[in-house]
Amino acid sequence: MSESGFRKTGQSAAERRQSANAEKQKAAAADICQSPLHARHKTRRINVGKVPVGGGAEISVQSMTNTRTADVNATLSQIGTLVQAGCDIVRVAVPNQEDSDALAAICKASPIPVIADIHFQSKYVFEAIEAGCAAVRVNPGNIRNFETVGQDMCKAAKDAGISLRIGINAGSLDKEIYEKYGAAVPEALVESALKEARLFEDCGFEDFKISVKHHDPITMIETYRLLASKGDWPLHLGVTEAGPAWQGTVKTCLAFGALLSEGIGDTIRVSLSAPPEEEVKTGCKILEYFGLRERHFDIISCPSCGRAQVDVIDLAQKVSEGLKDVQAPIRVAVMGCIVNGPGEAREADLGVASGNGKGRIFIKGEVIKTVPEDEIVPTLLEQAHIIAEKMEAEKSGAEKSEADKTESGKSGAEKTGSQKTKPEVFPVFGANHANLTN
Ligand code: SF4
User: What global pTM score does this model have?
Assistant: First the structure.
């Protein structure tokens, strides 16, 4: 790729390098995200546009559009939905020229970095870089004539300041390696990844991350563990072809849970046979529950039992639905009886313990009112929104005060390190049974 190629986009290679360096500096200033369970596996940092990946950066959530990429409006509309769900990075498939032609418009309008997913045709890689993609998923092993175009490809990516991903899947395993091992076992997947990584590194290119996906959670876990022991590449976690929503979610939670609890993983993609926003919601929640991402609304609800005097399942679903868009870290408890409910919901900010056709509504352990059963949901939603607004206002106030301190140069040293990903400590829900039985 010549420099004149890049000039078509309105920026010279030097300008693109400068802007890439600015992005890198921003990324370097990004907070380090510590895991409450285990020190993060040390990886080098790369950038996917404005999103830093690896080197302790906050773990990002990715998804992939399932529209035809050439349909720019449909693709951008789906990207909008993914962003709403919390997506940090989006990938689009580029199987043909029409899709490649649509990349520039998509990258220009997308609010989050766009990764082009390319197989076989090296010309689409160059076009994706020129179109402004933040990264390209490309496997040297399945790019025709990589030995002749590889050096130029790496130079083009380097000049544009973009990163790449090597994505090894059980289904796309190097033929020779597959024959050597006879199956897509962890050793085979890792050998294939190392072989591909060497092809980039031999070209002097190091800004890439690696994924080694498998549909079986145990194989996937063992593969990532093995790969993590071999080097410092940022790792993109994924259980590939995990299945429909509930099976896929179970497999993914098991695999991600094991790896994240060992500090392995820098960016994640949940793969479900479901709308891609469901992948994003699942990914975000996994990170929230692991204390690796700022927590949003959460519900604690009992499973109900023979003591329940209300339909807990219905109540919990209505409260969940009514608060699903709340960004504040409020915990709401929905408990079926006054016997064990409040004790089991000690850590909630707001809760209800139901009984005798009534619901006792608590805030931080204090009964604020008793309402008839048909008013439980509206009362909880109203109170939850009030508490959430207060939390948001306190957060904005704290951020403003921190920004003011930094501005005045009084607390520069305090800005280093991170508090962002520590799980919040919530006030103890101090209800006692005396309150409940009033
Ligand atoms: S809170 Fe009450 S109804 Fe719910 S599971 Fe516990 S004992 Fe049963």
Answer: 0.82
